[in-house]
Each structure stands twice: as C-alpha cells, then as structure tokens.
Amino acid sequence: MSSRLPTYFVSHGGGPWPWIVDQMPGDWTLLTESLRAMPVDIGRTPRAVLCVSAHWETDVFTVQIDPHPSMIYDYGGFPESTYSLQYPAPGSPEVAARVVELLGGAGIAVRTDAERGFDHGMYAPLYVSWPEADVPVLQLSILRSYDVDAHLAAGRALVPLRDEDVLILGSGFSFHNLSLFGPAGQEPSRQFDEWLADTMLRSDPAQRSARLRDWESAPSARIAHAAEDHLVPLFVAVGAAEGEQAVRVYHEDDFWGGWLSASSYRVGAPPDRVAV
C-alpha cells in the first residue's frame, strides 16, 4: 500500500450531533460507521489532520496556529450542555507553518490566526473518528468568494502533506439547505446527490475538476446549495488528489428522519474498495 494518505470530503452532520445523537431526528448509524471507519481505512494514526471546514470563511486562506485551540459553539437551538462540551485535540503550529510554506510557494495568499478556535465542522466528525482527541488538528479556512479554481489550486499546493502523514479532510455537506431539511428536500437532494456521484465516481479524474467548476448546472444545484459553503471543502479535497480515483464511503437516501440524500467521499482510495 502506498504511504501517501488519501483525502476526504465528509458530510459532517448537524451541530453537536455525536454528543446528543439519541435526541437527533432519524438514524445516524451509517454516518457514524463511516466516520469510525476513517482511521481503519487509512491504516495508521496520522501525524495531524488538516480540516478545511465549511464554517470558517475568510477573504484570504487562513491557517489556525494556536497550539491549544478553544471551542467555538457555532450552532443554535441545542441543549445547554452542548455549549460547554470539549474536544481538546492539540493544534499543530509546525504543520501550520508547512501549510503556509506550501500555499505561499504556490503563489497563493495566506495568513495565520492565533486566536481562532475549533468549529463544529471539525469537532463533530472528528469526535466520532478519534474520540480520544489525541491526534493534532488544525483548520484551514475557505474563501468567502467560494471560487472553485482557487480551492482546487489550494488543494494542489497541499499535495506534499499527504506524503508527510497529514490527512486532508474537507468537512461540509453534500446537501445543505436548512430550510429544506424535511420532505421538501427529498427530491432536490436526491437529484444533486446523483450528479455528485456521477462526477466523483463515474467521471474520468481528468474531467472531474471541470464538472465541479460547472456544478451550478447540476440538477437542483442551487436548491441543494443556496450558498455553496458546504460544498467548497470538496474542491480542496479533490485538488489535493486530482488525478486519483474516488470512492463513496458514506451514502444514504433517508438522512434526517427519512428524507435527505447525503454522501461522503475518499479520494485516492485503494482500487479494491467498493463504492456504496
């Protein structure tokens, strides 16, 4: 097996769901199992996880450098206990410096942030994958412009991290229109999810980026993503493994109480993995 790590794009669920899964609508088993499988699939503990979260937008790519990031409770309407929960993973200033070096070396403007804490786009999925919070994590922002090519380019610049045992994780959601989390979202989420599967699984990798650039022409695209913040982390994950095959590591058509289609992807997976 190659020593190079794959990249991931995960649908990260809603708010602090892993801590209150019994209070959330529907069955979260498939999402939970897919996130628990991530450490097993990569076959080792990574040196660090670089999380590109939909919940951190800036004008310039920005890297979190605090060695002990605080918590950001960037959600509303959940039980009081979820506003004091902790995921005390250490940061990684060393890897942050490497991210700055790689992006800057590619001519991409980049800044650092010593105060930014962890948002739920990071700690919700990683609490399931590494519940002991013993793997260093740092976050990279997405651009407020949502520019596809800029995020693909950032991914390309970060490819060397995969050979340095740093896992690149795009954290968003394959369907993200909160006003349609219910029956009204069933058909648009299915239509967009089918297009995304065609793009990720059945398109030649050389054509995948071109299809992603044109994502707004996909069926129900602007219904599935009225704003594409939760799709943008996918572009970085794809850019960092642009010529490699993808595998769908999570999929269901009855998420959120039986209504929504949702998926997650691994790029650079071994060829013997079967898509779901």
How would you describe this structure to a colleague?
The chain has a single domain (7-267), classed as Protocatechuate 4,5-dioxygenase, Chain B (3-Layer(aba) Sandwich). The chain has nine helices and eight strands. It has helices at 29-42, 93-105, 120-129, 148-157, 186-202, 205-213, 221-224, 232-239, 255-258; strands spanning 7-11, 48-58, 61-64, 110-113, 137-143, 166-172, 246-254, 260-267. The strands form two sheets. It has a six-stranded mixed sheet, sandwiched between helices. It has a two-stranded parallel ribbon with strand order 3-4. Helix 2 links the parallel strand 3 and strand 4. Helix 1 packs across helix 3 (120-129) and helix 4 (148-157) packs parallel to helix 8. The longest helix is centred in the C-terminal third of the chain and has 17 residues, at 186-202.
Q: What structural class should be given to the helix and strand makeup?
A: alpha/beta
Strand content: 15-25%
Instruction: Indicate the low-confidence ranges by residue numbers.
Output: none
CATH topology descriptor: Protocatechuate 4,5-dioxygenase, Chain B
What order do the SSEs take from the amino end to the carboxyl end, as H and E?
A: EHEEHEHEHEHHHHEHE
* Full CATH superfamily name: LigB-like
CATH architecture grouping = 3-Layer(aba) Sandwich
Topology (SSEs and partners):
Layout (H helix, E strand, L loop, with lengths): L6 E5 L17 H14 L5 E11 L2 E4 L28 H13 L4 E4 L6 H10 L7 E7 L4 H10 L8 E7 L13 H17 L2 H9 L7 H4 L7 H8 L6 E9 H4 L1 E8 L9
Parallel strand pairs: 1-6, 2-5, 2-6, 3-4
Antiparallel strand pairs: 1-8, 7-8
